[in-house]
Amino acid sequence: MTEIRLIVGLGNPGREYEATRHNAGFWWVGELAQAQKLDFRNEAKFHGLMVRGQLHGHELFLFKPQTFMNTSGRAVGELVQFYKIAPEEMLVVHDELDLPPGVARLKMGGGHGGHNGLKDIIARLGTKEFWRLRLGIGHPGDRNAVSNYVLNNPRSEELDLINAAMRKAQSVAHLIIEGKIEAAMLKLHSA
Fold first, then answer.
1. How far apart (Å, rounded) are the C-alpha atoms in residues 170 and 93?
2. Residue 1 pLDDT > 70, yes or no?
3. Which of 22, 42, 66, 69 has the least CB density, counted as fewest CB within 10 Å?
4. Is residue 1 part of a domain?
5. Mean pLDDT of 57-63
6. CA 20, CA 184: separation in Å to the nearest integer?
7. How high is the pLDDT of residue 3?
8. Rg, Å, the chain Cα set
9. What are phi and psi of 126, to 5 degrees?
10. Does 50 fall in a domain?
11. Which residues are catalytic?
């Protein structure tokens, strides 16, 4: 059973991106930190906002790369190398076009599905074998509309669904952190 030592939320830095669909990973990791009364600090050497703390009796890092989505791997790569974190000890939280709003799924490995943040992390680490928490944001229906779609704010009814899925995923965070990911999946993936 592998414990999670690092949770990375993906998103884009800056006020103009704060509420966009692409920042769902930032939102989730931010909520987790807030629930544990942990404050992010700027870690210039890792190009991101980081907090190290005890969560559910386990020491781990929460991390929000500030390199912009497409170069997330640079920040993540430097952090895991410095702290000698194995890929399977990492959970990457990201927005997922292939899932509808209101759905959150955990999985190990797999492709990047066109997600530039995942693509860059896979390229930097040289492996796909890390955990992902996929937060559904839905698909605009047209491949050419994707970049505009992810960089816009969700409609209010979508946001309600996304928030509900994020709450459900927060309720299994302790299981994820303890390395009981199968139990977390069972709870999260059942209706």
1. 12
2. no
3. 42
4. no
5. 92
6. 27
7. 86
8. 15
9. 70, 20
10. yes
11. 22
Q: Convert the chain into a string of H (helix), E (strand) and C (coil).
A: CCCCCEEEECCCCCHHHCCCHHHHHHHHHHHHHHHCCCCCEEEHHHCEEEEEEEECCEEEEEEEECCCHHHHHHHHHHHHHHHCCCHHHEEEEEEECCCCCCCEEEEECCCCCCCHHHHHHHHHHCCCCCEEEEEECCCCCCHHHHHHHHCCCCCHHHHHHHHHHHHHHHCCHHHHHCCCHHHHHHHHHCC
45 with 92: CB under 8 angstroms?
no
CA angle at 172 for the pair 10 and 57, rounded to the nearest 5°: 90
pLDDT surpassing 90 at residue 185:
yes
The packing angle between helices 72-83 and 116-125, to 10°, is 40
CB atoms within 10 A of CB 109: 13
Residue 77 forms part of a structural domain:
yes
Q: Note the pLDDT tens digit of each residue in 80-138.
A: 999 999 999 999 999 999 999 999 999 999 989 889 999 999 999 999 999 999 999 99
Domain, as residue range, for 75: 6-189
- pLDDT of res. 191: 58
Domain count, the chain: 1
Q: 63 falls in which pLDDT band (50, 70, 90)?
A: very high
Residue 164, domain CATH = 3.40.50.1470
Residue 139 tokens read as 């698909």
